[in-house]
Task: inverse folding
């Protein structure tokens, strides 16, 4: 039953992150929500790894953390550049990629 | 039967093409060299033909000899086409006419065209024409034949319009080309229909003459009971449509008189001896089909069109003043005889008349060419008294005229009499028409001869003189053939066991000769002795004369149809194309696509979160669907 609790927590975290990505307007907050999404996935990996006695799930988590760190670096760099260019960090105002 | 060496038939066909290419690309600058190349190639062709003739005559049964030489061309499942030649007595006879008479005309052209700037171009086109014509003669299937059929049309166009800076010649070329196009369209449809019915008992479909010969009875049995309205009648009529165009039968005869705008040797070669005879030759070549299909109404129609054309054209020749156009109408009329013979089943008779006609008509045209060359006019009323200044031409022209009128014992007598005897036995009315035509023929030839060659000179400006030797010598062999051509056994070469046999009929011969002599005497009385018919007869004939001078208003009717039917349809179709096909269809689709695009473009907001939401919704739907429907 302990696995179920972990998975429920993972699902709650994932939903929080998803709602955050879709609803928040600040780029920083969107990036933060993305991190929560990744953490939810990581928690599910670790829970399954523990329940099945297989370490490969935990190895996967290390990879995800490394990739997440790299992604945040790039994402924050883009956010800084956007703020410098436009003077704002509201995602709704950034529509340059439109037709 | 031992096959003759393959290079013989191929050399007959391809030597003139080689001459055309050599003249066009190498010797165009040199007049004598160009003429020598063209004449040399045709002479070698003639030698090859003669060698093949000797080979065939030495066969066990010359009349049934047939050799094929083929190269595969298209080999696909369900479609096999070949480029091939079929050498049989009929093809060799026609090939002899084309190369033999053609050679004389080529030599004559050297004299006639000597002052022309486009001399080399002329010989190049002549060679191209000889190549195309020999292709028709030798082709062993309908596809090959049709290709050459069109090539002949094209080279005829080039030669009629040789003096392209004269609007009348250019127009005549276009007219000939367009009229033939109408006929060839029907011909092509006929070939395609024949192809579609030619596969019987699961055999592959074919257009090869020999194979069609072997399956034609099966094809007929497929449609037995359908009678007159079977597809076979339609096929026969459509194939005959091609003949009507090339051989200038009514109602597509209008192009031939206008084609006289071309140089006279061209008229002799193309519009007397060979190309117009191609239609009759085609009818002979596919005669086995008509014979096996055996639809009496179609054969009757062919015979009637021939007979009608014979009389119709002869009547227009009565009032024509242009010497070449008289000969053109006379050609129409004689072609009518041949078509009539074919319609009555007289395969050998038709081909016999074609051969003798080629001899004397080519000679008559070249004789007229000598006169035109000397006087620079075509109008017979500006000639006269040529018998003193051009004695040789006069003699030759007289021989040709007598042969054309069918006076015993000239060549034309034997061949025309064979047709008339055939008609006497099967179609009495057609025999009457034929005899009447013979009388009219004698009258208009007598008229031309009396006006142009007898009497006193009428033109003061030009003094006639005899043509140079190079224009007289080629006429001598043709004159000899016009005299003795009836005795050299042409029909026996073509002896067709199933075709109609014709016995010599003394009554028919006497009547037709009397008719011809009567016509000649009448012409002599009117145009030499100055005999005038009584006044009431003259009044009676005046409206008929007007009708004849206007050529039965056929050209006017065609012009009216052209302006009022074809032109108006074209305007409507033009609007339809511009507004429906282009406006609605082509541009309509493009505009609809563009509008849809610019409407859908609004969906792109540029906001990352909208896309993320769309992704989320889509993913949720997918997951829901997989949980709901996938077991």
Result:
């Amino acid at each position: 039953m302990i696995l179920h609790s972990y998975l429920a927590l993972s699902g709650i975290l994932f939903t929080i992150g998803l709602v955050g990505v879709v609803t928040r307007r600040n780029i920083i907050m969107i990036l933060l929500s993305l991190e929560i999404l990744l953490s939810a996935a990581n928690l599910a990996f670790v829970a399954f790894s523990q329940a099945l006695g297989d370490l490969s799930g935990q190895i996967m988590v290390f990879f995800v953390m490394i990739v997440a760190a790299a992604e945040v670096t790039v994402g924050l760099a883009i956010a800084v550049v956007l703020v410098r260019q436009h003077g704002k960090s509201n995602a709704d105002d950034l529509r340059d990629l439109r037709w | 039967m031992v096959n003759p060496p393959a290079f013989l038939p191929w050399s007959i066909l391809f030597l003139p093409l080689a001459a055309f290419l050599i003249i066009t690309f190498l010797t165009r600058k040199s007049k004598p060299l160009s003429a020598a190349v063209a004449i040399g190639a045709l002479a070698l062709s003639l030698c090859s033909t003669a060698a093949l003739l000797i080979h065939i005559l030495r066969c066990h049964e010359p009349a049934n000899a047939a050799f094929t030489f083929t190269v595969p061309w298209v080999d696909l499942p369900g479609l096999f086409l070949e480029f091939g030649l079929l050498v049989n007595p009929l093809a060799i006879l026609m090939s002899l006419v084309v190369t033999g008479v053609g050679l004389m005309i080529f030599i004559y052209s050297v004299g006639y065209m000597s002052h022309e700037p486009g001399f080399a171009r002329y010989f190049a086109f002549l060679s191209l024409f000889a190549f195309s014509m020999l292709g028709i003669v030798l082709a062993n299937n309908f596809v090959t034949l049709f290709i050459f059929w069109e090539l002949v049309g094209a080279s005829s166009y080039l030669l009629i319009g040789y003096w392209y800076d004269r609007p009348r010649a250019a127009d005549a070329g276009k007219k000939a080309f367009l009229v033939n196009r109408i006929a060839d369209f029907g011909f092509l449809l006929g070939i395609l229909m024949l192809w579609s019915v030619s596969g019987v008992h699961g055999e592959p479909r074919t257009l090869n003459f020999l194979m069609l010969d072997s399956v034609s009875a099966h094809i007929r049995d497929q449609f037995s009971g359908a009678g007159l309205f079977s597809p076979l009648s339609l096929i026969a009529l459509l194939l005959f449509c091609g003949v009507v165009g090339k051989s200038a039968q009514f109602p597509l005869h209008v192009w031939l008189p206008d084609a006289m705008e071309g140089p006279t040797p061209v008229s002799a070669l193309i519009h007397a001896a060979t190309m117009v005879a191609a239609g009759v030759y085609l009818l002979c070549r596919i005669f086995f089909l008509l014979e096996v299909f055996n639809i009496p109404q179609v054969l009757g129609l062919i015979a009637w069109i021939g007979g009608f054309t014979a009389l119709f054209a002869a009547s227009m020749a009565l009032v024509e003043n242009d010497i070449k156009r008289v000969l053109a109408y006379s050609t129409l009329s004689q072609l009518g005889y041949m078509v009539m013979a074919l319609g009555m089943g007289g395969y050998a008779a038709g081909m016999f008349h074609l051969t003798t006609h080629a001899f004397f008509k080519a000679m008559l045209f070249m004789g007229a060419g000598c006169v035109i060359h000397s006087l620079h006019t075509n109008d017979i009323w500006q000639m006269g008294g040529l018998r003193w200044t051009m004695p040789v031409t006069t003699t030759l022209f007289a021989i040709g005229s007598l042969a054309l009128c069918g006076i015993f014992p000239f060549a034309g007598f034997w061949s025309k009499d064979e047709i008339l005897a055939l008609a006497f036995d099967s179609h009495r009315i057609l025999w009457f028409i034929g005899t009447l035509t013979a009388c009219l023929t004698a009258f208009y030839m007598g008229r031309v001869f009396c006006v142009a060659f007898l009497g006193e000179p009428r033109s003061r400006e030009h003094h006639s003189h005899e043509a140079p030797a190079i224009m007289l010598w080629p006429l001598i062999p043709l004159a000899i053939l016009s005299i003795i051509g009836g005795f050299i056994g042409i029909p026996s070469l073509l002896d067709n066991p199933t075709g109609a046999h014709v016995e010599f009929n003394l009554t028919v011969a006497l009547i037709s000769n009397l008719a011809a002599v009567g016509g000649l005497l009448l012409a002599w009385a009117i145009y030499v002795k100055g005999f005038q018919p009584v006044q009431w007869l003259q009044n009676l004939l005046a409206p008929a004369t007007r009708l004849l001078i206007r050529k039965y208003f056929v050209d006017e009717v065609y012009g009216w149809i052209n302006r009022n039917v074809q032109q108006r349809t074209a305007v409507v179709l033009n609007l339809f194309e511009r507004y429906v096909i282009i406006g609605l269809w082509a541009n309509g689709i493009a505009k609809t696509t563009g509008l849809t695009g610019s409407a859908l473009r609004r969906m792109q907001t540029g906001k990352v979160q909208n896309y993320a939401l769309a992704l989320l919704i889509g993913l949720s739907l997918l997951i829901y669907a997989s949980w709901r429907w996938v077991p």
Summary: Residues 23 and 98 of chain A are 20 Å apart (CA to CA). Chain A touches chain B through 14 residues (CB under 8 Å). The longest helix of chain A spans residues 56-86. The two ends of chain A are 51 Å apart (CA to CA).
